[in-house]
Design a protein that fits this description.
The structure holds two protein chains of two kinds.
Chain A: H1 2-22, H2 33-44, E1 46-51, H3 67-73, E2 81-83, E3 89-91, E4 94-99, E5 105-110, H4 124-137, H5 141-148, E6 150-156, E7 159-164, H6 171-177, E8 198-204, E9 208-213, E10 226-231, H7 235-243, E11 249-253, H8 255-259, E12 266-271, E13 275-280, H9 290-299, H10 302-310, E14 315-316, H11 341-350, E15 357-364, H12 368-382, E16 386-393, H13 395-404, E17 410-415, H14 422-426, H15 443-454, H16 458-474, E18 479-483, E19 485-490, E20 494-495, E21 511-512
Parallel strand pairs in A: 1-10, 1-11, 15-16, 15-17
Antiparallel strand pairs in A: 2-3, 4-5, 5-7, 6-7, 8-9, 9-10, 11-19, 12-19, 13-17, 13-18, 14-18, 20-21
Helix pairs in contact in A: 4-5, 9-11, 15-16
Chain B: H1 2-28, H2 33-38, H3 44-54, H4 60-72, H5 86-121, H6 125-140, H7 143-157, H8 173-207, H9 210-217, H10 222-259, H11 265-274, H12 278-306
Helix pairs in contact in B: 1-12, 5-8, 5-10, 6-8, 7-8, 8-10, 10-11, 10-12, 11-12
The chains are: A alpha+beta, B mainly alpha.
């Protein structure tokens, strides 16, 4: 008995001393841990970035599925070419490339002093290995399809020649997705090795993800020595940490968060580069009727939607293309269906629904903006005699029920493109495409898309793609809403943040002001 | 000896049932892990291939047996999401939850024992009613709610810590303990209130016993009797309650880790469930179930040790 009491006493003493040591019950100085972190960051030239999604993927460059993982790993991996912030392709592992006039032969000259993060020198064999592995294992089906058209790939010294079976003007964008990795290295899942301006250092599940500067980088070396991504799967926690000054950079903030930010950080505004829409299952009642889909388009007040969900920020879109694709984006399409509840009712009556319709919207519960949009939507639709109900589902259920089994009437999500090509946005709407979640089937669209794919001339190709977009709008394939506004809060001591037309943040451009 | 054998058998059967239930639950809920692994662009063939590779195309029972055999062999499998061994992930996360549990438990004891003794020694009726009422209120507030209040008060208002800015042990051991102490406190408060209630009741019944009258009649003061004689005896039922608490604190940490965004096994469990990362979920469920069974077993043994009158058959 005495011994027991003694043990309790010991625990007490231990705990009290522990607490007084850490100062958890005593007076704590204003300098909390966050301030310490960011001030030390300034000195040692490193930053802490808050991210909302754990890169809970394999880190293998060809197996990364989550946009959040690709956003981070863009800094680690490079292809022969890589996209810049204007959407052009610049040389990366290749120092130069030529495309033959018939668009069939691509010749890349390998840059000489490229060294992998594991110290190996990058040679032509690594490039051949990367193309082979990517074609065999990539989870991006568009890339696999594009690579399957390669009839021959060979290396002579440091020159790599790729021959295609048919001309493909988009091919260079697929080349940028073929990240160059060392031949035979098989630990990419957990210890990725690339050629990028940053090296992977470590990751701790649900805690952090750390990359450090690649001092052997052939090009302009990054200014920052270390970037720590801290993972906050809880939006409130992310915001609290940001506002306390413990984080230097947070992207993808909402307007409410930006408005409640009081720490004096700079706020930059861009777009998310996705097409948010009410995606309608064109194969089920009542949306198998084009008139009903059109009625729904008229019943949604897109301007009010932007005002309500994002204080007017964001860009309206009228088809499956976001504004960063300047070449294809047609802003007139966004005005194709002006808000008109009366007209919506008439169209519904014409379609045989004089008493209005009711339907169910399945929304992934983890995406706040889509949930907000759905809630606003339900209210707006009431004016046109449409009764919509929301069913929140978790992301995995959404993937299997809505995306996989296509067991839904309507859903609100955003589609983005993992590659910088129009077909990245449009291929899915071809009749019978495995990713055609809405079961869209339109012969004119299929023809226009096929023409765009097979045409070598760029102007002609663009024309066909634009036609595809018009057809999607004319047939009211979906109720197109907007490209969401993307807000970035950044420590005012930092500079160099650039928005890309893809979902990524280029850390190599960011640095502390002199 | 026979007793231990019985307990071990109970443990094994419990774990078998728990893991089987987890397995069955996963075969019922919608969602396919290969979708998460291969992304939305994957072809059906690729998914089918991966399913076959992971053995997901086999019947539940076969999968269960396979899992069981490798689990017994010490192989916890590989996480579907992270593509890394589950054991590595647990080695990373378990110490965090364990520290939180130990701290929460220690705080409970430190708060409850002195206050319980104090509560038991109150003589005035009014003060006693007030103390009981206050204790009752604290007891009924769930830990997660106290956690939210602590986050707001100590974090947002008093700026003692940044809620969400968890500091790992490697970064700074002191900051690590400091961050966890707030979470431990919110675990400890309602649990301490329960312990106080038990201790007070136990002291009350002990005080009515004859040995108290004897001790008092020998000239001992009331507080002397309380501390030297009554307290020890009153502790007996409380200790087994505390031991059970230890089991509940760890499983309850799932919620507290959520409130304080502590990356322990609780958070890992939740995210693994939503991403259908079966191997991770199963490993954590089995760990938690074993913990509960083992702690309860330890409580029984402890009970016997401190009170030799109790004999376990």
């Amino acid at each position: 008995m005495k011994r027991l009491i003694a043990i309790f006493l010991m625990i007490t003493v231990l705990l009290v001393s522990m607490c007084s040591l850490s100062g958890c019950f005593g007076t704590t100085s204003e300098n909390n841990s966050g301030d310490d972190l960011s001030s030390s960051g300034a000195k040692s030239n490193e930053i802490v970035v808050g991210i909302a999604q754990d890169p809970d993927n394999s880190l293998d460059p060809y197996k990364m599925t989550a946009a959040g993982t690709r956003e981070v790993m863009f800094n680690v991996f490079e292809g022969l070419v890589k996209p810049d912030s204007d959407g052009n392709f610049v040389c990366a592992v290749a120092s130069d490339y030529k495309i033959s006039d018939d668009l069939l032969t691509y010749t890349f000259t390998l840059r000489e002093n490229v060294v992998f993060h594991n110290g190996e020198v990058c040679d032509a064999n690594d490039v051949l290995y990367s193309f082979k592995t990517c074609a065999a294992t990539s989870v991006t089906s568009a890339v696999v399809t594009a690579l399957s058209d390669i009839t021959e790939i060979s290396a002579e010294g440091n020159v790599i020649t790729i021959t295609l079976g048919s001309p493909n003007t988009d091919f260079i964008s697929y080349v940028s997705s073929v990240y160059i990795v060392p031949d035979g290295y098989n630990e990419q899942d957990t210890k990725p090795v690339g050629t990028g301006p940053f090296k992977f250092l470590s990751r701790s599940v649900q805690e952090n993800f750390i990359i450090v500067r690649n001092d052997e980088y052939y090009g302009d070396k990054a200014s920052l020595e270390k970037v720590t991504y801290r993972i906050f799967e809880d939006a409130t926690a992310l915001f609290t940490a940001l506002n306390s000054g413990a984080l230097d950079l947070v992207a993808h903030l909402t307007i409410e968060q930006v408005e409640s930010l009081t720490n004096g950080y700079n706020v930059l505004e861009g777009t998310m580069n996705l097409v948010q829409a009410i995606y309608l299952n064109n194969a089920v009642e009542p949306f198998n009727n084009e008139l009903v889909r059109k009625a729904l388009c008229y019943a949604v007040d897109k301007d009010a939607m932007l005002d309500l969900t994002a204080d007017g920020h964001g860009t309206k879109v009228g088809s499956s293309m976001y504004p960063a694709f300047t070449k294809y984006f047609d802003e007139d399409l966004a005005e194709a269906y002006p808000y008109n509840p009366q007209k919506a009712k008439e169209l519904l009556a014409q379609a045989g629904y004089p008493d209005g319709i009711s339907f169910l919207i399945k929304v992934p519960s983890n995406y706040g903006p889509h949930v907000d949009t759905a809630v606003t939507l339900v209210e707006q639709l009431k004016a046109s005699g449409i009764a919509a109900k929301i069913e929140l589902v978790d992301w995995n259920t959404w993937l299997s029920e809505v995306y996989g089994e296509r067991n839904f009437q309507a859903t609100v999500v955003g589609f983005d493109s993992s590659i910088l090509t129009a077909s990245g946005m449009l291929a899915r709407w071809e009749t019978g495409n495995g990713k055609n979640m809405i079961n869209y089937s339109n012969a004119d669209f299929d023809t226009a898309f096929a023409l765009a794919q097979s045409t070598a001339d760029d102007a002609e190709k663009t024309k066909h793609y634009k036609r595809c977009l018009e057809i999607l709008s004319e047939t009211a394939a979906n109720v197109y809403l907007q490209d969401l506004a993307d807000f970035v809060a950044i420590n005012p001591e930092l500079e160099g943040y650039e928005f890309y037309p893809l979902y990524l943040i280029d850390m190599s451009k960011i640095g502390y002001k002199e | 000896m026979k007793y231990i054998f019985k307990k071990v058998l109970t443990l094994i059967i419990t774990l078998l049932i728990v893991s089987l239930l987890a397995f069955l639950a996963f075969s019922v809920i919608p969602g396919d892990p290969t979708t998460k692994m291969l992304g939305t662009e994957a072809t059906e063939e690729a998914k089918a291939e991966l399913r076959a590779e992971l053995g997901l195309d086999q019947p539940v029972f076969v999968r269960y047996i396979n899992w069981l055999l490798s689990f017994i062999g010490g192989d916890f499998g590989t996480s579907y999401n992270y593509n890394m061994p589950v054991s590595d992930m647990l080695a990373d996360k378990l110490p965090i939850t364990a520290t939180l549990t130990v701290m929460g438990f220690a705080l409970t004891v430190v708060i409850a024992l002195p206050l319980g003794l104090l509560a038991g020694s109150i003589k005035t009726k009014g003060a006693d009613t007030a103390a009981t009422a206050a204790n009752q209120v604290v007891m009924s507030i769930p830990a997660f709610f106290i956690g939210i209040i602590i986050c707001y008060l100590c974090g947002n208002v008093l700026k003692m810590f940044v809620p969400g800015m968890f500091v790992s042990y490697e970064e700074s051991p002191i900051e690590f303990v400091k961050y966890l102490s707030f979470a431990a406190l919110s675990i400890a408060i309602p649990r301490a209130a329960m312990t106080i209630k038990m201790l007070k009741g136990s002291i009350g019944s002990e005080m009515a016993k004859n040995y108290v009258i004897t001790a008092t009649s020998r000239g001992n003061s009331r507080s002397m009797v309380l501390i030297r004689h009554v307290f020890k005896n009153a502790l007996v039922p409380v200790i087994s309650f505390l031991a059970v608490s230890l089991a509940e604190i760890m499983t309850g940490a799932i919620i507290i880790e959520q409130v304080f965004t502590i990356p322990g096994i609780g958070r890992l469990l939740l995210s693994s469930i939503s991403s259908r990362d079966f191997p991770v979920v199963l490993a954590i469920v089995v760990i938690m179930a074993s913990w509960i069974v083992i702690v309860n077993f330890a409580a029984d043994v402890l009970y016997q040790l401190i009170d030799p009158r109790i004999r376990i058959k």
